[in-house]
# Entry
Amino acid sequence: MKGVKGWLILWVGLTLNLNADQQPSEEVAFSNAWVKMPMPGMNMTAGFVDLKNLTNVELRVTAVKTPYSAMSELHEMVMANAVMQMRHVPQGWVIAPGATLSLVPGGKHAMLMGINPAFLNQTMTLLEFNIEGIGWVSVPAVIKKTTP
Ligand SMILES: [Cu+2]
# Structure
């Protein structure tokens, strides 16, 4: 948990406006967007969504962010030495034309770190994804206390 205090300080003075960054997109369709409420005492969590490519070309998701996480990364779960491990995927993921990228518990996910304490009082947030050649697109995401 090194650096947590530094992240908290970064949040001081920031104004959170859930609507400011919203960019409706004709290139992608979102569904099932949600973010897990962090476990008590933790300041990291994960976000999930289905992201469909509505275009006729490949799209690459290259980054994720939210209004409440100081640092956010694209992660996936992989088996290494018979143990499930979480890995950062800096190159992101390609979505074929018409295909859907699913971020789900136990699989690919948006790793959200340095969670602003104000997040704990919210019921909604935004998941924002950077798509190569398009820019940032975002979807409102329900905050849930447990995995459904
Ligand atoms: Cu992760």
In short: Residues 6-22 have pLDDT under 50 and may be disordered. The radius of gyration is 15 Å. DSSP finds one helix and ten strands in the chain.
